[in-house]
Design a protein that fits this description.
The complex is a heterodimer. Chain A is extended. In chain A, a hairpin with a 3-residue loop joins strand 1 and strand 2. In chain A, 46% of the residues lie in helices and 23% in strands. In chain A, helix 10 packs antiparallel against helix 11. By secondary structure, chain B is of the alpha/beta class. Chain B has three domains: 204 residues, Tandem AAA-ATPase domain (Rossmann fold), CATH 3.40.50; 177 residues, Rossmann fold (3-Layer(aba) Sandwich), CATH 3.40.50; 78 residues, no CATH class. Chain B has 24 helices and 16 strands. In chain B, helix 19 links the parallel strand 15 and strand 16. Classes of the chains: A alpha/beta, B alpha/beta. Strand 11 of chain A pairs parallel with strand 1 of chain B.
Amino acid sequence: MSMTREQIRDYVLTYLEATECQFLEKSPHHVTVKLSPRADRDLTNRPYYWGFIERTGAEPETMSFSFVFDPEALQAAEAAKAAQDNPSLGPQQQMEAAQEDTLLGRYFGAVRPLPVLGPGRIQREELAFGSPRLKQIFEAARRGGRYVYLFEEPGQRQRMALLPAAYEPWLGVCFKVEFCCDMKREELHFYGVSLLTGAVDESFQTRIAAKPLVPRLPENVHIEPTQLSLDAARTALEQRLAERIAAYDDTWAQEARERLNDELALIDAYYKDLVKDPEPERAQGASEQYESRRDEIRWQYEPRIVVSALGCGIFHLRSPR
Amino acid sequence: MNPHPPGPFSDPAALPDLPTAVPVEFDRSWFNDLETRHEKGGPWDDWKLFNLALEAETASLVTSFEEMQCLKHLQSVTPLPHQTETARKVLFEMRGRAILADEVGLGKTIEAGLILKEYIVRGLVKKALILVPASLVLQWVRELNQKFGIPAVAQKKEHSWHNDVVVASMDTAKRDPHKNILLSNEYDLVIVDEAHKLKNKKTTNYQFMLQLRKKYCLLLTATPVQNDLGELFNLITLLKPGQLGGQSEFAANFVVDKRLPKNEGQLKDELAKVMIRNRRGDGELEFTKRIVRNIDVELSQEEKNLYDGVTSFIKDQYNAAGGDLNSMLSLVTLQREVCSSRDAVFVTLVNLSKKLAPDSPIRDRIWDLVDLIRQIKANSKAEKAMELIREMNDKVIVFTEYRATQEYLLKYFRDRGMTAVPYRGGMNRGKKDWMMDLFRGRAQVMIATEAGGEGINLQFCHQMINFDLPWNPMRVEQRIGRVHRLGQTNDVNIYNLSTKGTIEEHILHLLHEKINMFEMVIGHLDVILERFEKQHSLEKSIYQIILESGSDEEIASRVDSLGHEFHTIKSELDAEAEGNENEGGLQQLLGG
């Protein structure tokens, strides 16, 4: 899977908004922002600077960035704008003139060789799928969005209603399942279990998708007491997931085991004489090597399934009753 | 992300009442965090970020075992079809343990980068170690960073080893204290460039690699087997011990003589399971032609005088030194420089006189030579080069061996209204890149003193002038390789300037007509040279000829016999390559 330019743009804008960055400039092709302290910590990799700010209580100076989503379109737009400002030159000539100045000028020493450093500088970066900066933003989102505690927004009418709305607490967990051998495949499963009834919903994401969720307890709602401990809820979810995985076609694992056994057989054949070397020292060395080769091969091929949680939370949803 | 497989009994998380064939391991660290926060009433994360995390994970999810993911993560490199195909094979057929044995210049680094990237994207490799010759460390770091967006780090200090992807030189890695650190670690992927240095079992390199713990492993070499089938066996034993059987079975099944394999078909099949060798001329990997033109330059009387003066000076010194070649090396340089420019000779002469005692008689001789230099008013070669460049009216790279000549030419061209940019080994990376940009964009001419090493890839230029010739054929080949490489779409014109009636004429004759190196298939030269230099150094042989020959005819005939020797080796290799249908040879084994 991947992301389109538009998806990347939406994604980054959402992140910048969520972390309360200050937008300086925005176009369909780029965005210029002054980072919030939080985003600065996430993205600029300056732990010493932030350590200093924390110790001294000084006012932090966050960095600014221009994130470019569509470099060609942005360049075209800029050239068009420049042409408008200075109609005597065509865009082509103008670009050439600018380039000539900086390139040859730098060589002959007329232009200073380095871009502006220090405060006030706006670093420009292209964000494409796979670029390190985008990965960093992904990572920041993962770190900053793991545990939530939310309530369904009941809407205006509930506030006026006579009776409080009944709310049912759920444990929702987004599991990541990794099928590993020497290769790997992954799946995501967002399961939820009602802490009231113990019912498991395998498409919990769909259940909450259309609901507006807020972090504060809304007025005039009644949370029903939980019947299920978190521990029991977790077990229920894991059990259901394990059942599902068990029903999967495991050809991939059988094939990986075959490969593993073939490789082990080769190693056995190679070392079978070496470990019987009449010289004890050499035999010892060979058998150490033999063991470590076997370990490596098992490490490489042995099929296994690892389940971790991407994120989880307690969701209070309006009871259907 | 991809831990060791759990041992048979160390799997408390597996649910006992659901006996699945594959162990399922539940990572429950999330649960403790959740409970703690629940008890304390927070802190809770932002719902928007939660959704972003989910979206990121969905977009980066590896949905299939067998579909290359890395290409959509790469913006700064477009791999060629054979490179992608090689990466695919290594990943999905060879399962991450392979010898990448492409011929020189086909992009083994790109292939290795693709494989590393794919494993990183899939979360199968976190810690990777890349061992390369010291001179290539920075180049690897740069390529991985820029082309593949892999945060590789060059090993500088002991703590560098803590990084996830480290590039280091083999010589550093195998020494203490580094060795101990590396051997106590384990690596998801180890890449070794120039892996033919691992062909001997007894070397410390080999022993070190044997001990290193690794999950996947790539060995890169253009010459997986040079002299001995045993080398190949050793390389493969590092990757997959037993692939060719034990040592004795291998010898019995596949070896007639160390250079002569048997059961070749079977051996080839076995090799194909661990080794990929792309060769020029396979499918789309056809190279454009090299068109060579030798241009004789007639020296002016003054230049001729200087040449003769230098020659007799050197010979006298040689005789005075009793024919000791090693003490003469710096003097012989003079002879080479005099074919290039008076500036180059001058610099060397001045340096030479500085080293002499104030009352040395040689000083006078040197000043006589300097007088001869003063007489020279024009540089015939520079005039010829200028004329050529004007005629071409195209981008051209001019190679010279000497800094002084480079400076002279820069000024000479500038005075005549032609923009030229310099390029030399001593420039730092940024300046080199910038010179390349200038050459690509603005300047018609680049004047380079350095051809070897890395970085100058000039596919956009297909004219080159050898202003003077290195006496080492590998250096000539490196020069050509800058321009004549994968991605060059035009035939490449090579102009060799040679001064008439000088040693240069003989060298050119040797390189061009005898060795035929300008048109030779790339990649073969190093093999021939290696075998040739087992007996004696080519450069030194040429020195000797110059110093000892009495007449021009003698030089010619001795250069000829050198050429014959070269030729013999080449035919030997060709014979081995073509082989006999029944017997075969090493080269054929590699698909030659």
